[in-house]
Design a protein that fits this description.
Chain A is an alpha/beta fold and about 375 residues long. Chain A is about 50% helix and about 10% strand. The longest helix of chain A has 21 residues, at about 235-255.
Chain lengths: ~375, ~375
């Protein structure tokens, strides 16, 4: 039994979570706000943040250059600017991309003079990252409760995860209302990402009694909403989804993710498939391969029973919701598999996928007939 | 839905948890070790701690004066000594009494010059408590993962809880082996305490999605062991019990406890009934009264179903395991109820007990025939 536990982020959850706990936003004298162009404004989160900062007389700089699949170099640039304006803490607002980027920016800001790739080298990051606050506006990433920051390398084709024990957000404000403005498609995709976290965490050999509980709770709430395939998401559903996404983020903070994550990176980077849908494409394969092992079969059965479904229905619904229609030549497949075959996630489930099997899976889904 | 979360303690769980994570013991230059006369030595925990401190060249002072139901004044004395020897961190080793005491001692040590009762006054405790490490040698209290410190007031008859947001242990080392030397009776009593935490937390109106998961996990493991009424506790059972006790401690760190806790204090303080058994005496009443409310009835049914039993069996087994045989005159009952009727716990469940009902319950259990 593994009952170890570590989750240093303080999570304030619920409507008006930020306003009602505003003192916890005041971590310094000048805030560097990391976000994208749209969701921080559309969600109302940025307005809430700047109102509270104003009330406390805390100055701030808004850096709204974060796009999907945030480039390492944008974070490097952000870190430079944060240091230049004298920021002493960072607030990330948005989906996974701004939240992940805010961790890297907090690290660069505290370590001026290092090169972009040095962020992956603990020996070169001598100073702890700036204190960090995370405010999600999607219900998917879980980035607000872990220390992962998935960045796009300068080649523009590969992702590499920056992890640092001091890159945990100190505080997360999780307000379901900040997700109300999210489109239907983005809601489904981010919910599929959260479901992938729950399932892949539950099957991980690193899972603990606590990550399991969080994963099962998350999966049940997500399945309850997703299996209805609702035409519109009610406030109640939004609340279920974001509570689940945060719980699933806690689960992967313990275990990391499984192979659907790297398998999906190529079709995200090269073909523009949103991350959550790109993971869900491979959910059926993930279940099927893991069912080949005794342990995997038992775990998947228990997981499905807990959420009130069957492995068969999961295999059908998850890729179905992703609804990805791509077709590739052998050469295109070769390029995509080569980009992802080096990830560590393949060993993070009862079944360990071989490179040959990655090709098989890609061909089965995408080979031009 | 409440999905807020805060648990700043890093928990290392498992056999050799301390030895394998020994760097996390090194929080300062001089450790003040707070413990009792026996369990720290018998369990092997003290030897592990002093070996690691020696390895790091960290000096220490052992304060082994903590007895059951630790007096506020002993903690005051310990705090003075800790300051005098120049301790800059505190290590609590033992059951609930040394762990609770270590929090108060860490607070007194950092706030020399205050009076004993000033510990309950946030305005007078100006300095944050010394950094604290908790190492449980019983599977019950959960004190290693919360910020509660239940102390006996100078009158020797009442308990009062010291709570401080900076009194959370920084680190907890939870090694099931440290409970191997615990007697059968103490194992049952402390397991009953943990079960009371799980049940009372689950019924609390302050429960969150995370405290619920922790409470249900804990209750299932505890019930699995306790309902067998084993003549001996195997290492596997010890592991189940201590994982559960830690999880139940997490649950009450969110919610606090319900009325069996204060109801039991009088028969612990005046009649020497161990704390866990004293709570379990009133478990049947707690279930019965809460079943009078619609919410309470539904919650108890869900709790019982999750752990694979029925409310009826819980009502029989828990007081049965406590096996407390006391009898009092009306005057003795009056004295005992007066000591406990001021607690806040009575409002912490769907059913709120009146003082008249406290008398009824005490009479039903204990009135001399």
């Amino acid at each position: 039994m593994n009952a170890s536990f570590y989750l240093p982020t303080r999570v304030f959850f619920g409507e008006r979570a930020l306003i009602e706990n505003k003192k916890s936003l005041a971590l310094g004298k000048h805030a560097f706000i990391v976000t994208g162009k749209h969701s921080a404004i559309a969600s109302g989160a940025l307005a809430d943040v700047t109102a509270v900062l104003g009330e406390f007389g805390i100055s701030y700089t808004v850096f709204d250059k974060i796009q999907e699949n945030p480039p390492l170099l944008t974070c490097f640039e952000g870190g430079k600017l944060a240091a230049k304006v004298g920021a002493d803490f960072v607030i990330g607002i948005g989906g996974g991309s701004p939240l992940d980027a805010s961790k890297a920016i907090a690290a660069f800001a505290a370590n001026q003079g290092i090169e972009p790739m040095d962020i992956y080298d603990e020996a070169k990051r001598k100073n702890p990252t700036l204190p960090l606050i995370a405010i999600p506006t999607t219900a998917g990433t879980g980035s607000e409760v872990n220390y992962y920051s998935v960045l796009t390398l300068p080649d523009g084709e590969r992702k590499k995860t920056f992890k640092a024990s001091d890159a945990w957000p100190r505080v997360a404000f999780v307000d379901p209302r900040y997700t109300y403005s999210l489109s239907h498609g983005s809601t489904v995709s981010t919910a599929l990402d959260a479901f992938a976290h729950a399932l892949e965490s539950y099957l991980s050999p690193k899972s603990t009694v606590f990550s399991e509980q969080a994963a099962l709770f998350a999966a049940k709430e997500l399945w309850d909403v997703l299996s209805q395939a609702p035409a519109q998401f009610t406030p109640e559903m939004r609340e279920q989804l974001i509570a689940a996404a945060t719980a699933a983020g806690m689960a992967i903070s313990v275990t990391g993710t499984g192979f659907p994550h790297p398998m999906g990176y190529s079709i995200t980077m090269l073909d523009g498939i949103p991350h959550g849908k790109a993971c869900a494409v491979f959910a059926g394969d993930y279940i099927e391969y893991n069912e080949k092992t005794e342990l995997g079969k038992a775990r998947i059965a228990a997981f499905a029973a807990h959420i009130g479904t069957t492995p068969k229905l999961m295999k059908a619904l998850l890729p179905g919701l992703a609804n990805v229609d791509l077709s590739f030549t052998e050469e295109e497949i070769d390029r995509r598999v080569k980009l992802i075959c080096g990830a560590g996630n393949y060993t993070n489930s009862p079944y360990v996928l071989s490179p040959d099997e990655m090709y098989e899976i890609y061909r089965a889904h995408f080979l031009k007939k």
